[in-house]
């Protein structure tokens, strides 16, 4: 679910801007299915790349028997990682009626927030998938009092499943297939090794196997704990 602001009496597509809020709604049984087939991590990755600063994960209780069969601890882990590692706001509802009520309240709140305010559009011709997130981050740092948004057409292009992925996006997905590597850890790795070839070349540059096993750990040993790579995971990346 996204919300689009339209300029008063505006007719041009440039006068329709996607607001900074996005909701991913999941029924509990669909959440279980997405964890089983791997969609869960892939969908969270796409949400984190959407550019929205406020991402809300709405989980609606449904078919709880399947949840019990799958494992309550596994569901709790998935929910916790969505909040703690991905930084999404998580909302639980018991029925579809509660979900609708929540969407209504969100819509009213956003209307109050954005009505009669000035919004700033990033021109379509300045938006490239590979640099969009960095550009938006820089604009926010330069002008924290402004809302920099994209048109609906640009938003659709940025988040289209059928659009070809950049090399970095592909590498992030490759890394995330390794158990223990989250989006944050993968992003930290590609800061140091932006392509698979670069990673392989850095391994080849070292002659001592112990140094090779610790290479990624040493490169990603910053102050933020969730981005750190431990020795076991660093060794696993080397072996793979």
UniProtKB/TrEMBL annotation:
This protein is called 6698_t:CDS:1
* Organism listed in the record: Scutellospora calospora
Which lineage do the record's taxonomy fields give for this organism?
Eukaryota, Fungi, Fungi incertae sedis, Mucoromycota, Glomeromycotina
């Amino acid at each position: 679910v996204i919300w689009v602001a339209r300029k008063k009496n505006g007719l041009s597509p440039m006068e329709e801007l996607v607001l900074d809020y996005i909701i991913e709604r999941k029924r509990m049984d669909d959440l279980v299915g997405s964890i089983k087939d791997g969609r869960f991590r892939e969908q969270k990755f796409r949400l984190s790349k959407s550019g929205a600063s406020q991402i809300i994960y709405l989980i609606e209780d449904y078919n709880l028997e399947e949840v019990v069969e799958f494992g309550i601890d596994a569901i709790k882990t998935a929910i916790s990682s969505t909040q703690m590692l991905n930084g999404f706001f998580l909302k639980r509802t018991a029925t579809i009626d509660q979900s609708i009520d929540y969407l209504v309240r969100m819509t009213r709140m956003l209307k109050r927030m954005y009505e009669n305010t000035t919004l700033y559009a990033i021109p379509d011709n300045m938006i490239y998938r590979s640099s969009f997130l960095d550009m938006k981050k820089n604009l926010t740092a330069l002008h924290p009092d402004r809302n920099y948004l994209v048109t609906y057409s640009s938003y659709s292009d940025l988040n289209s499943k059928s659009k070809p992925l950049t090399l970095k996006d592909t590498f992030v997905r490759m890394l995330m297939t390794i158990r223990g590597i989250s989006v944050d850890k993968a992003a930290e790795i590609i800061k140091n090794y932006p392509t698979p070839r670069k990673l392989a070349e850095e391994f080849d540059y070292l002659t001592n196997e112990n140094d090779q096993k610790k290479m990624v750990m040493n490169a990603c040993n910053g102050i933020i704990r969730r981005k750190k790579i431990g020795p076991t995971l660093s060794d696993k990346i080397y072996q793979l």
